[in-house]
Amino acid sequence: MAETVIDEVVRLDGVCRHYTVGDETVKALDGVSFSISKGGYWAIMGPSGSGKSTLLNILGCLDRPTAGAYWLNGENTASMTDNALSDHRLKNLGFVFQSFHLIPQLTVLENIEMPMFYLGVPPGERRRRAQALAERVGMAHRLRHLPAELSGGQRQRVAVARSLANDPAVLLADEPTGNLDSATSVQIMQLFQELYEQGKTIIVVTHEPDIAEYAKSRIVVKDGRIQSYTP
Amino acid sequence: MILDISYYWPFVKLGATDVWRHKTRSFLTMLGMVFGVGSVIAMLAVGEGASAQALESIKRLGSENIMVSSVKPAYDPAKAVASAGMGGNRVTLASYGLLFEDDSRIRETVPGVRDTVPARMVRRNARFGDRRIELRVVETVPTWFEVVKRPVLAGRTLTPADYAARANVCVLTEFGVRKLLAAQRMIGQHVRLGNNVFLVIGIVKNETGGNVRAPDSDADAYIPMSTGQRLFGLASIRVVSGGREGERVELSEIIVRMKSTAVVEAGAKAIESMLKCFHKNPDFKIDVPLSLLREAERTKRTYNIVLGAIAGISLLVGGIGIMNIMLASVTERTQEIGIRRAIGARKSRIVVQFLINTCVLSLCGGLAGLVVGVAIPVMITFFSGMPTLIRAYSLFLAFGISAGVGIVFGLYPALRAASLDPIEALRHE
Prior knowledge:
The complex is a heterodimer of chains A (231) and B (429).
Chain A: E1 8-21, E2 24-37, E3 41-45, H1 52-59, E4 67-72, E5 75-76, H2 82-92, E6 93-96, H3 108-119, H4 123-136, H5 152-163, E7 170-174, H6 182-197, E8 201-205, H7 209-212, E9 217-222, E10 225-230
Parallel strand pairs in A: 3-8, 3-9, 6-7, 7-8
Antiparallel strand pairs in A: 1-2, 1-4, 4-5, 9-10
Helix pairs in contact in A: 3-4, 3-5, 4-5, 5-6
Chain B: H1 5-21, H2 23-61, E1 65-70, H3 77-80, E2 90-96, H4 100-109, E3 113-128, E4 131-140, H5 144-147, E5 152-155, H6 160-165, E6 169-173, H7 174-181, E7 190-193, E8 196-204, E9 220-224, H8 225-232, E10 235-240, E11 243-249, E12 253-258, H9 264-278, E13 284-287, H10 289-332, H11 334-343, H12 347-384, H13 392-418, H14 422-427
Parallel strand pairs in B: 2-11, 4-9, 6-8
Antiparallel strand pairs in B: 1-12, 1-13, 3-4, 3-7, 3-12, 5-8, 6-9, 7-8, 10-11
């Protein structure tokens, strides 16, 4: 079956997400099916209101489909408890957000360490790996700084380092350049390019065609359905 | 993992930075805890000090002892005229109180009695040279000094030889000596008690004070009972308006020493019922230091309950203050909670984080309260001289209470934080 296929990291099978507002049913997602194999670099595009954010939440295991199945790294999330879903996110997903979402009280190093802390990595190793990750995104010189002391581009680099902390199966970026100027955007997209070349599976959700250009494959969502699927 | 300190330490650090970052807010929030914990420690110290003093003075009476003393009965006109004189020069002689016979009866019939110390106390003028004070002359037996244990400061106490010889010797208390004889050497001096001259053979320390009546007083002169009877007799006569008033009291007090504390209360009952047979008029009373001790302990327990209630209320108020601030903090940190949940923190980790945060806050308050609670009794003792006693348990209690308040009042905000929807929380600005 589908979960036995080793290089298929993401697989959606008729995923629906229906909300009930009053006595009306809103079909944010209505039967979405696709799969993404290991090492892919995908852009998910679509205008606002297309169901793009809902799809992102499902892909990110923050939400569960009301119908259909979603396999991430071979495990179906549909029947998972909240704890199992949390653990699943922790191990298999790395999030990069539009507004960086670093924790303001924590230093760069502590922010990068956080996912490892929740996974139970011992403090010494945590520190070592966080330093290596900071180096990988070019932030090794700012380890003791607080997010407020960094520029937007630097913050997003730290966020990327954090998303890589537990070596996840998928890197999920939601409008990663939405809050950055064009020069910095290029730098961040170059960072994603490097990660892709190193074999990471990357999904970027965006509405900017320029950003989607960096990706090798593309999915366009409209009205809760897949409009086009270009591997 | 649950017992691993590295599981909690980042949150302790985070909680501490949070307290530090909102210094004013934290301080105001903690005030409730500071005063709550401070008042618990301070009030316990005051209570412990007072009860320690009471216990000390009760113990000084001896827990194996029973004090039987004479009480002047209510005025009885039928008896008062027993030996009325003529016209305006009336002499009334009231005869009441404990008898020598009572002493031997107690010793011989009440089970468990080790020995008895009879004493007769009369106030008399004492003179030395041109100095003059009123002393309480205690006519007693040598064993008085075994039962009422007081340090001997100089000389010796009464001996059976003094008693047998009916010697004119006396033992004074330190306070009496100082009053009577300023700075001179007292041992070997002769003082006049009433109309008789006594040789001072010893000085004992007076240890009265506290709120329990001790058998000794500050200014006592102890003489052998045999000497007292030879010189003073049993009646004392005072001049009052309209005549003279006399009293005939054989014994003012009998201190009964029991064989052990276990038989004290039964002994007291036996003495009471026995004496009632011989004293139709209630002219005696029985004090049992052991019962006083028990009563003091009961009083202390009541006091502690009241104290606990007051402290509980103030800690409740403090705890609610902390809970309020933590709820505000949860709202303020909604996005942080969303980030942590999105990254993969389980709900329980969020609960732990906020519980620790609340505990850090309440423990800081508790620690400050500890300082306040220790400082207040020290100042009370320094300025008012009231005894206070800070016991180790009260400090642990205060620590435990502040941790408890942190957990109890932190639970609701923590659960609320954990139950936030990660998607909503992430979007919160």
